[in-house]
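User: I'm curious whether this sequence folds into something compact or stays loose and floppy. Could you predict its structure so I can see for myself?
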Amino acid sequence: MFERGKYRNIPKHSRYTQNFSEDVKKKEESTLSIKHKDLQASYKRRRTNNNTRALTIIIRT
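Assistant: Here's the prediction. I'll summarize afterward.
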């Protein structure tokens, strides 16, 4: 789904991007030891109506 633009759905708020990058680094370390093809990182994006929507991003390594 996200082959063309990997990071296009990440909001430009610093706290979300920092948390996302840290989660990706942690999951890259954990998945490289297991030698997975895909690693999944999920984060919650806050919407205008104060509902949290979880987005799952698959990054192909």
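Summary: Helices lie at 14-34. The CA atoms of residues 9 and 43 lie 11 Å apart.
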